[in-house]
Amino acid sequence: MNARWLSLNFFAYFFTWGIFLPYWTGWLTTVKGLSVFEASVVMGTGMIARALSTLFFFPAAAQRYPLTKLMRISIILSLVIGLFYIPAHSFAMLLAVTLAFNTVYPNLLPAMESGASVLIQSERIDYGRSRAFGSLGYTIALLVIGGLNAVFGNAAILWTMFAGLAVFYAAQLAGPPAVLSERTAATGKSGRGSAFRQLFGMPAFLTVLGITILLQGAHASYYNYGFIYLDDLGVASFAIGLILNVAVIVEIAFFAKADKLFGSMKASTMFLIAAIGSTVRWLLIFLVPTVWMFTLTQVLHAVSFGIAHYAFIRYISGKLPRGLIAPAQGLYAALGMSLSSAFLTLLGGSLYELSPGLAFLGMTICTVPAAVIVLLTRRRFSY
């Protein structure tokens, strides 16, 4: 029953993430009239707000509220703030609403992953299988948006986001696990400051976190400019949805078999595979700027994102006590999924204005160092 709840909520959350992550920059440029650089500033600044929120607000809120209650509050606030996008048209207004939205909505990601890590520890739930439902939600969102855009235009992106958040709230009510309805399930007895001090006192964890930050941050150009890149190549909206879905379909297949294929593999080995695959992915897009090559490299998303993410989740689930999981997820969400992406989104935006392919090539400034760090530290910390 708890595995079913986790799968359902992963599906619902990543349905909304499949709208926000790949389409929001395009929505800002096509519907709200911002330039690519202005949209980059809005999204990059929003990512900084996301980083600060998941770093400070999420661990503090998880200490005060059970994870299930925290998620419900965050969903409702996200809906309310999202409504202000309707009258917002100027750069300043769109920036303000995006800052507010990114202060609340992204906290749902570490909350979901923290809940999954707790359930892995307490019930040995098959994380990969449940997470595969999240990828399925993401891919369905891409298909839905692609179809709606073809019929109603890009204005459908915002309204589909509202519908997705409403469905996510309903999924929260479908028999939540008792262990996630207890405050101690998220942070234990450690306060936020104490938890962070413990984490920063673990060299192996800091190394793993640093590698993950580099590998996940390297997706900044893909997430923010993939839609625009394909649109500039003359691909129709519905076809863009299909192409972006290739990555998620492969990701679903990976997570469905991840525990069986990678459950006994060292995190360092998985990180090295992810770093090499990611480097190859961005190099190919730069060297062969065509629709078919972009589509082909989508297969590598299971490597660049999937393996890196799975390695981090398995590491903290197996090496950290329950009381440190939420703070660790907060650091991962803040630094790996937000702050690094914020700076690299701004870099990618500047490079994209020079040449679209450079935005992807620029991401190798993260992937190559990540591989080097793994090779230099894997024996010392034995992770």
What is the name of the CATH topology? Growth Hormone, Chain: A
> How much of the sequence is in beta strands?
under 5%
Helix count, per DSSP?
A: 18
CATH class: Mainly Alpha
Report mean pLDDT, rounded to a whole number.
88
GO molecular function, one term: lactose binding
Transmembrane segments: 5-24, 36-58, 70-86, 132-152, 200-223, 235-255, 267-285, 291-312, 332-352, 358-377
Protein name: MFS transporter, PPP family, 3-phenylpropionic acid transporter
InterPro entries: HcaT-like, MFS_assoc_dom, MFS_trans_sf
What does this structure look like?
The chain crosses the membrane at residues 5-24, 36-58, 70-86, 132-152, 200-223, 235-255, 267-285, 291-312, 332-352, 358-377. The protein is mainly α and 383 residues long. The protein has a single domain (2-381), classed as MFS general substrate transporter like domains (Growth Hormone, Chain: A, Up-down Bundle). It is 82% helix and 0% strand. It contains 18 helices and no strands. It is globular, with a radius of gyration of 19 Å.
Which characteristics define this entry?
single chain; 383 residues; mainly alpha; Growth Hormone, Chain: A; 18 helices; transmembrane helix; MFS transporter, PPP family, 3-phenylpropionic acid transporter; transmembrane; MFS_trans_sf; HcaT-like
Question: TL;DR of this structure?
Answer:
This protein is mainly α. 82% of the residues lie in helices and 0% in strands.
